[in-house]
Amino acid sequence: MKRATKVLASLTLAGAMTAGLSTGALASTRVPTAAKITLTGKATGVKLSLMFGSSGPAETAAVKAAAAAWSKATHNQVNVIPASNFTQQLDEAFAGGTPPDVFYLGSQQVETFAKQGELLPYASLVAPPKAFYPALVKAYTVNHTWYCVPKDFSNLALEINTTMWKAAGLGAYPTTWSQLAADAKALTKNGVAGLDVGNTLDRLGAFFAENGGSYMNAQRTKFTFNSPQNVQALDFVQSLAKQGILQFPPQQSAGWAGEAFGLGKAAMATEGNWIIGAMKSSYPSIKWVAVPMPAGPSGKRGTLTFTNCWGIPSASKNSRAAVSFVKYLSSYQQQLRFANAFGVLPSRIAAATAYAKQNPSVAAFVAGTPYAMAPVPTVGFSTVQSQFDTQVVNLATGGANPRTMLDQLQTNAEALLRP
To answer: Which CATH code of 1.10.390.10, 3.40.50.150, 3.30.70.2520, 3.40.190.10 fits the domain covering 155-304+375-417?
Structure first.
C-alpha cells in the first residue's frame, strides 16, 4: 500500500487536541485544591524580572512585546532576561537569593521546586483550572495543590525540507522506521545529513515511545529505561548514526536540530512546533513540511510532549504584580499572540481550539497528542539525564553502547526513588 502524501488531510484539529489531551498519555485528574496564599508588594509602580529559555528570536521578541504591553497598561516595568543557559542561570539566581519574579518552569521541574518550598502556588488566582487542558493542570499539581499556570505545550514531529526531498526523487513521506532509514540515506549527500536529531533523551525518547517503550511504568513507581523496547530503539538510532545518515547537532556545528535544518545542513529534523517560529523568523526561504513521527516495528505511533508554566517564586517581594503579569501572559488573547509568533500550542482550551482552526500547519504536531509521552518528573532526574546526554554523540562513532548507556541510566534513575 502506498503511503499517503497528504498528511492528516481529514484531521479535525480542535477535536484532536481536546480528545488527545483528555484521554491520551497525559491523563486528566481531579480538580486540585486551591492554595491559600498572601500576595506581597504593590500592584503598580514596581519593576519585575522575567527569565526564560528562548527557542530563538521569534520567541524572544514575542515575550518582550508582551512584557512591554503589560508594563504600559499597568505602569510597571519588566526586565526581560532571555537566558543563554536557562537551567544554570535559574539555579544560580535561586541559590543567590535573587530569583526572577516570573520564570519558565517545565513539568519535569515543578516537583523539585514545590518540594523545596521555592514555588508560589498562585495558579487558582489567575483562572479556574477548567479553562486549561486537564492534563496540563495535572502536570503542575503536586500533592493536590495547583502551583503554576500552564503556559503552552509542544509535541515532536518530523520536519522535512521539501526542496531537498523533491531533488532526491522521493515521493510519500515516511511512516515507518524502515522508510525513515531509506529516505535519510537517499537525502544524505553533498555534506547534508539526511536526518538531524538532538543529542538528548528529550529527542531520542521519541524512538522509545515509537517502539512501545517508556521511561516509567504507568504508576510511576519504577523506571523502565533498559527495557528491550528501548534498547532496540537506541540500537536503531545508532545504526543510522554510524552510517552518517543521522547526525547530532554538535556534528554539524549547530546549537540544535532546528538550526541544522534551517541552515540546510540536514534534510530532516525531529523538533517540536516551536520550530515554526524559528523557521519563520530566521530561515524564511526554506520550504518545509512537518509530518507525524514514524511508527516503530510494531506499528505503534509515539512522540514526546513538553510543557512549561509561568513560575513565581515563593520568596518574591512583588508577587501581587507578578500574578497580575502572569494573568496577562496567560490570557486568551496573549496565548494566541504567542502561538502565532513562535508556534507553541496554547494551554487554554478555547485559545488552542481557535489557533488550530486558523493554522492547519500544526496538524502534524497535534496528531501526536493522544500518544505523546511526557518527561520524567522525578526530583533530581535532570542530573541523571545530563549524564546520559553527554554520551549520545558517541553513538555515531561506536564509542557508546546503547545497552550500557540505558543500564547506567536505569541504575542512576532508580537511586532517585530510594528513601
So the answer is: 3.40.190.10
d(CA 338, CA 152): 9
Are residues 197 and 177 in contact, defined by beta-carbon separation less than 8 angstroms? no
- Centre a 10 Å sphere on the Cβ of residue 148 and count the other Cβ atoms it contains: 29
**Burial class of residue 244 in the structure, from the number of CB atoms within 10 Å of its CB (0-12 exposed, 13-18 middle, 19+ buried):** middle
pLDDT in tens, the chain (419 residues): 333 333 333 333 334 444 344 323 444 445 566 567 899 999 999 999 999 999 889 899 999 999 999 999 999 999 999 998 998 999 999 999 999 999 999 988 898 899 899 999 999 999 999 999 887 888 898 888 999 999 998 899 999 999 999 999 999 999 999 999 999 999 999 999 999 999 999 999 999 999 999 999 987 789 999 999 999 999 999 999 999 999 999 999 999 999 999 999 999 999 998 898 889 889 999 999 999 999 999 899 999 989 899 999 999 999 999 999 999 999 999 999 999 988 889 999 899 888 888 888 888 998 887 788 888 888 889 899 999 999 999 999 999 999 999 999 999 999 998 87
Give the whole-angstrom CA distance, residue 347 versus residue 307: 9
Does the domain at 14-25+35-154+307-359 match CATH 3.40.190.10? Answer given as yes
Alpha helices in 146-245 (DSSP H): 162-167, 177-187, 201-210, 228-243
Domain boundaries, given as residue ranges, for the chain: 14-25+35-154+307-359, 155-304+375-417
- For the chain, what percentages of helix, strand and coil (3-state, to nearest 5) are there? 45, 20, 35
State which amino acid sits at residue 115: K
Interatomic CA distance for residues 70 and 77, integer angstroms: 9
Whether 14-25+35-154+307-359 and 155-304+375-417 share one fold: the answer is yes
Q: Say whether 292 sits in a helix, a strand or coil.
A: coil
